[in-house]
What we know:
Helices cover 38% and strands 20% of the residues. By secondary structure, the protein is α/β, with parallel strands linked by helices. It has one domain (5-204): Alpha-Beta Complex (Spore Coat Polysaccharide Biosynthesis Protein SpsA, Chain A), CATH 3.90.550. Strands 1, 2, 3, 4, 5, 6, 7, 8 and 9 form a 9-stranded mixed sheet that branches.
Amino acid sequence: MSGLVSIITPSYNSAKYIAETIQSVQNQTYTNWEMIIVDDCSSDNTEEIVKKIQQSDTRIHFFKLDQNSGSGVARNKGIEKASGEYMTFIDSDDIWFPEFIQNSIEAIQTSNAPFVFSSYRRSNEDLEFVYSDFIVPQKVTYTDVLKSNSISCLTAFLDINTLGKKYMPKIRKRQDMGLWLQYLKEIPYASGIQQTQAIYRIRENSLSRNKLNLLKYQWEFYRDVEKLNTFQSLYYMLHWMYRGFMKYRN
């Protein structure tokens, strides 16, 4: 188990949390990794913090976009720069448990599934666990993800040697879901790890917490990205709304 793991992290005004995120990567029991941080024109001292940490850890690479373009563009830049046999993502305010990488690679090897993802804990901004843990299904298919995307960017883990590189669609939201679906059109399923492997920090000012906007973007995703007809889009939207309600009941 020695393949290089490329870790992709978009950042934007992440000074408050990014050192903690990097520390959780440095704490991994699996050490053959590169962390590719792509900054989306932050106006705070994110760059200064990352470059200071870089001085003592050459596995961390920092890139900066020419103009503010959104997390999807930043992730795609990271995918472009990635050179690992495996690829995974962590946002600049989230945290991995120390065995996340090791457990993910072992799951790929034992399940023969080139795409795995894990359960995670959910906290507020102060790392208080006011939400229940999110436990993922054992398997998800393309149609499962259309109904409810249980694959978090925080724990998705891909065998790039087997799957090859693909890029996120150029949309404002749901870019990660768009990437998972591209892979799931080519493989039978992604394999879920029930053990919690990370902490997803739910921030109150997050765009993802605006439910009306989410419904609008979800509908546009079905129609414009996946090219589903009106009946199919309505069918999956109803599933999405119900499962989304269940997901955030605490």
